[in-house]
Design brief:
Number of helices: 10
Distance between the termini: 53 Å
Order of helices and strands: EHEEHEHEHEEHEEEHEEHEHHH
Strand content: 15-25%
Number of strands: 13
Mean pLDDT: 91
Largest sheet: 7 strands, parallel
Helix content: 25-40%
Low-confidence stretches: 302-306
Length: 306
C-alpha cells in the first residue's frame, strides 16, 4: 500500500509519518516543498494539472493531507487551508480517483461551543476567525469532492515537538527560559494571558493512530470525524500540569489582556468523539499528563551558562 503524506515535515505530519511507516506492507512517500521530498508540491501555489502529473507518477493508494497554516494573515491562511485542499482534490480526481484521502481539519471550524456540551459532526459551523473559516473552506472542498475522503476534525494537539506558535509549545519554551534557564528557580515568574478557556486536548500519538486507521480501514467512511480527547479541560490545567512536569516552582501570572482574541471569543471547545469510535474503533489512549511529559522530554531545554 502506497501512502503519500503531504506536510510530512510539520508538527503533526512528522508524527503521522512515523506512525504510518510502522504499518506492515505500507510504503510511505512524503510530499512537500523540500527538494528531498518524494513528491515536490506546494498546495498554496501549485496548479491542479501540475499536481495531477506528480500524483500520477507515484500512484498512491491513500493520501494524507497534514499541510496547513495556523498563523499568518488571512491571505496566507486562505492559500494553504482553503485553496490547498481544493487543488489537491482536483488533482486526485484526475490522477488517482480511487485513492483514500484523509484530510486534517480543525475543531476551530465549529467556533464557540456551548459550555457543558460536546459538539457532534452535524453541528452548524460558525468559526470565530480567519483560521477556522479557512479550515472550514478546506473541509467543504474535501467533503464535496466526490472522492473517497474523510476529514478528521482535530482538537488541540499536545505532544513532543509542539511548536511555539501554539500554547503548549509556547509555554514549554517559556518554562525552559524561566529563571535564566533554571525552571525550578523559586523566584521565577511565568506571565501569560487569560487561561480560563476550556479546550479539548488530544495527544499527537493518538491523532497519528486515528490517521492510520482512517487511511487503512476498508469501505466508505463518514465524511467527518471528530478526533479529540472527548472532554473539555481548563487551559489553566494544561499550563499548571506542564509547569509541574518541568519542576517549575515559580509563579504563574495571568496578565489582563494578554490572551489571544480567538481564545476570548471561544471560551469552550469539546468534541463528541463517538463517531470516530464507531467508524474506526478509535479512542484516545494517552492522558494529558502523558502528553505533557512527552512534550517536555523532547523540548530542547536551555541550560544557564556557568
Amino acid at each position: 500500500m502506497r501512502i503519500l503524506v503531504l506536510g510530512a515535515g510539520g508538527y503533526l505530519g512528522r508524527h503521522v509519518t512515523e506512525r504510518l511507516r510502522a504499518v506492515p506492507g505500507a510504503r510511505v512517500l512524503v510530499g512537500g516543498r523540500s527538494p528531498a521530498a518524494d513528491v515536490t508540491v506546494d498546495l498554496a501555489s501549485d496548479r491542479p494539472y501540475g499536481l495531477a502529473e506528480a500524483l500520477a507518477k507515484v500512484a498512491p493508494d491513500a493520501v494524507v493531507n497534514c499541510a496547513g497554516a495556523t498563523g499568518g494573515d488571512a491571505v496566507t491562511l486562505a492559500e494553504v487551508n482553503a485553496r490547498g485542499p481544493a487543488v489537491l482534490c482536483a488533482a486526485l480526481r484526475e490522477a488517482a480517483p480511487s485513492a483514500r484521502l484523509v484530510h486534517l481539519g480543525s475543531a476551530a471550524e465549529y467556533g464557540p461551543g456551548t459550555p457543558g456540551l460536546r459538539v457532534t459532526e452535524t453541528e452548524a459551523c460558525l468559526p470565530a476567525g480567519p483560521y477556522g473559516a479557512t479550515k472550514l473552506a478546506g473541509t467543504v472542498a474535501v467533503t464535496a469532492s466526490g472522492l473517497d475522503a474523510v476529514v478528521l476534525r482535530v482538537g488541540n494537539p499536545v505532544g513532543a515537538g509542539a511548536p511555539p506558535t501554539g500554547l503548549p509549545g509556547r509555554v514549554a519554551a517559556l518554562l525552559a527560559e524561566a529563571g535564566d534557564g533554571a525552571p525550578g528557580a523559586p523566584g521565577a515568574e511565568l506571565r501569560l494571558g487569560d487561561l480560563s478557556a476550556y479546550r479539548d486536548f488530544v495527544d499527537v500519538r493518538d491523532l497519528a493512530r486515528a490517521v492510520e486507521l482512517a487511511a487503512v480501514t476498508p469501505g466508505p467512511l463518514p465524511p467527518l470525524l471528530n478526533v479529540g480527547g472527548g472532554e473539555a479541560l481548563p487551559v489553566r490545567e494544561l499550563v499548571r500540569g506542564l509547569a509541574d512536569v518541568a519542576g517549575f516552582r515559580g509563579r504563574i501570572v495571568e496578565a489582563d489582556g494578554g490572551g489571544s482574541a480567538r481564545s476570548a471569543r471561544v471560551s469552550w471547545q469539546c468534541s463528541d468523539i463517538t463517531a470516530a469510535g464507531l467508524a474506526l474503533g478509535w479512542r484516545p489512549a494517552h492522558s494529558l499528563v502523558a502528553s505533557l511529559e512527552a512534550l517536555w522530554a523532547a523540548h530542547p531545554v536551555r541550560v544557564a551558562a556557568p
